[in-house]
């Protein structure tokens, strides 16, 4: 039981923190369903260097005991390392087109995910998580995260007031969120849910991205802005605390008892070129 | 709300005043075009409660949304003209009288499951059973809508696990092993999707019949069976005792 943090949203979606759930009860409910959980991650250009560590740590901590399909989207399939996986788990490399700039790549992710779901993964998985590749699992990520539509609170903004959220503030953008509105600031590196729901919202996000592109607007934080706009009007059924999306550069506050998934330290400038 | 438990260990919300924003929930509910039903029984002297129940439910139960009220009674003539809200419907269904109080209580499960199968499943998406001898004093809204919903009994809210009123005799189908049990739920207010309520009422009735064949009657009758069912089929949402209070407390 946690009394120091908010554990339920005003629309009655649970906010998942260590101490709010009992893994045994959840496992006994989910294991008999024989679920397959999918993971998408984009390893573009130099980001392929993160794949090994991502997969190795996922094998230790992500949905242990469940069937998992990793879908690694890359423009460089030859550089994807072969990682030893547990039985019932497999990794698939999904080749994608090279784009001229990292902003363009970032924008095309939603499209790539929704297309892949329609063509392939909807038949292979029940739930799908879309995760950043430049991250590592440090602690358990289990069935407490499963839900229809799942979003995670951005580690940089969970303790600040709404006026400081870096929402898109230009009213001409399709992702515009006016002052005074907004529930949380969700991070773009973690979202998921039932594969059907993920399809719906990645498609919708991609449409708004195209709308902005046509109007020559590049949203403030690329697809994170689109995600936040989408989740304002289509609220997640489950929200993950920043334990599930941490940034190692931040000092750990008392509310964070456990870090489960966190960024790898990197030189952004070097990697994005 | 920091003073109460708002989430179960299996991550089902426990609905208390102050934990939710009904406007947000109403917006979500209306997007889905849902119809909810209420089933209740007014048998023998309980016809007396019909007026009070129906007038308060019309005013406070899912106000503004379409509600189908299914009223089972052995006294259909006693029902004076009830004023229904324009979006609501009342269906009066005659039932047989039974000699014993337990008689009607335990066959309610059977009646509900049979009617879900033959009728309700085609008319509503969600169905709630509520005792007739209640009056609503405050709005009960869409915060109650979920796949399988149970109400924490006000009498048992603070009781420790080993002093809860579970049936403990292992000969009964309603038995809950010592030391187990999450909450004590009341049989006076429960519900969910028609599919889940069907499964629940069928399972409870089956338990009741098996007990009868073995010459045993559970301590709190259908409520004991309900509690056993919900231990092994955990509700997706719990209603706090605010949703079913007893003035005597």
TrEMBL record, chain A:
For this UniProt record, give its keywords in alphabetical order, as a comma-separated list.
Answer: Glycosyltransferase, Manganese, Membrane, Metal-binding, Signal-anchor, Transferase, Transmembrane, Transmembrane helix
Q: So which cofactors does this thing need?
A: Mn(2+)
Gene Ontology biological process terms, A to Z: carbohydrate metabolic process
| GO molecular function terms listed in the Swiss-Prot or TrEMBL record | globoside alpha-N-acetylgalactosaminyltransferase activity; metal ion binding
SUPFAM superfamilies the UniProt entry points to: Nucleotide-diphospho-sugar transferases
Q: Tell me which GO cellular component terms the UniProt record holds.
A: Golgi apparatus; membrane; vesicle
Kindly list the places in or outside the cell where this protein is found, as annotated in its UniProt entry: Membrane
Q: Any keyword Metal-binding?
A: yes
Gene for this chain:
Gbgt1
Per its UniProt record, what InterPro entries does this chain match? Glyco_trans_6, Nucleotide-diphossugar_trans
Q: Where is the major localization of this protein?
A: membrane
Residues that hold an alpha-L-fucosyl-(1->2)-beta-D-galactosyl derivative according to the record: 154, 224, 247
- Please list the residues that bind UDP-N-acetyl-alpha-D-galactosamine: 42-44, 47
Signal peptide residues on this chain, from the entry's feature table:
none
According to its record, how does it sit in the membrane? Answer: Single-pass type II membrane protein
Q: Which organism is it from?
A: Stercorarius parasiticus (Parasitic jaeger)
Highest taxon of the source? Answer: Eukaryota
* Residues the record marks as active site: 224 (nucleophile)
- Co-factor: note: Binds 1 Mn(2+) ion per subunit.
The name under which this protein is listed is GBGT1 acetylgalactosaminyltransferase
Q: Does the keyword Manganese apply?
A: yes
Which residues are involved in binding Mn(2+)? 134
- Which family does the UniProt entry place this protein in? Belongs to the glycosyltransferase 6 family.
TrEMBL record, chain B:
Q: Which family does it belong to?
A: Belongs to the glycosyltransferase 6 family.
Which InterPro entries does the entry mention?
Glyco_trans_6, Nucleotide-diphossugar_trans
Q: Where are the transmembrane segments?
A: none
Concerning Pfam families, the annotation shows: Glyco_transf_6
What's a GO biological-process term for it?
carbohydrate metabolic process
Query: How is the protein disposed in the membrane?
Result: Single-pass type II membrane protein
What are its GO cellular component terms?
Golgi apparatus; membrane; vesicle
> What cofactors does this protein use?
Mn(2+)
List GO molecular-function terms, semicolon-separated: hexosyltransferase activity; metal ion binding
**Protein's UniProt name:** BGAT1 transferase
Instruction: Name the Gene3D superfamilies on file.
Output: Spore Coat Polysaccharide Biosynthesis Protein SpsA, Chain A
Keyword terms, alphabetized: Glycosyltransferase, Manganese, Membrane, Metal-binding, Signal-anchor, Transferase, Transmembrane, Transmembrane helix
Q: Where does an alpha-L-fucosyl-(1->2)-beta-D-galactosyl derivative bind?
A: 223, 246
Q: What are the positions of the active site?
A: 223 (nucleophile)
Tell me the PANTHER family matching this sequence: GLYCOSYLTRANSFERASE-RELATED, HISTO-BLOOD GROUP ABO SYSTEM TRANSFERASE 1
Q: Which residues bind UDP-N-acetyl-alpha-D-galactosamine?
A: 41-43, 46, 131-133
